Amino acid sequence: MTVIRPFERKAGEDRPLHRQPDRTAELRAILGRRIMVINGAMGTMLQGLKLEERDFRGEAFDTWNQDLKGNNDLLCLTKPDAVRSVHEAYLAVGADIVSTNSFTATSVSQADYGLEGLAYDLNYAAARVAREAADAATALTPEKRRFVAGSLGPTNRTASISPDVEDAGKRNVTFEDLRSAYFEAASGLADGGVDIFLVETVFDTLNAKAAIHALLTLFETEAIRLPIMISGTITDASGRTLSGQTPEAFWNSVAHAEPLAIGFNCALGAAELRPHI
After folding, report:
1. Which residue in 22, 32, 99, 183 could disulfide with 149, CB within 3.0 to 4.6 Å?
2. Which residues are CB-contacts of 123 (< 8 A; sequence separation ≥ 6)?
3. Are 112 and 156 contacting, i.e. CB atoms less than 8 angstroms apart?
4. Over the stretch 74-117, which tens digit does the pLDDT of each residue have?
5. For residue 14, is it within any domain?
6. Which domain holds residue 170?
């Protein structure tokens, strides 16, 4: 199937870069004084808008040959006002950081919809929508800068675990597949203007290491640097990730990224996560 790219850059007409400076020192100074608040879930807020198939399709994908309802990241292109309204709601109640609507905006995940060719576009658009909302909030309260975290989700594949219970060595994705997909996504987020990279909902540490490798490569090749946050997810009461790591093992696997913050999200709930943290 040929993937259309209605938002593809035309020859000689590169998108404007909105790359942000490294605000690690500023963020550490704020964290030294107080707790910073990041927004809550994006997906459930968008579900609350009761959007239909036509909302996800917009004009650009009116004749697309697959259902697109549920592809929340696509809304950054087809219904950006809906995404912006979620960011604005979180900012209005005091969020310091809003995360981009790009949880599944990698080519690996978007392949489910036949839209893997739109990965860069989705991440760029997600960053622009969040950046505009955050900057508008900062303009209202200049003494309190608002920040944007570029969400890099876990994808719908796992590099460590076989999808076939009868073939332990089988994999449906490679490390290089993931690294390449994350590099493309991160490029779009950086160009669109995020302040932070958020590698989130990590159930497989090897996936996260591919994301970290992509980020460190991006920093080196583009001569930029942005702070990294990492958030894993524990899948059962034993306190382990899906790929079998304890929180301590998880930390030791990703500490080389020198994250600004690391923690856990989703899964068991706050009360059950506390002792593991």
Report:
1. 99
2. 100, 102, 105, 150, 184, 185, 186, 187, 188, 189, 192
3. yes
4. 999 999 999 999 999 999 999 999 999 999 999 999 999 999 99
5. no
6. 24-273
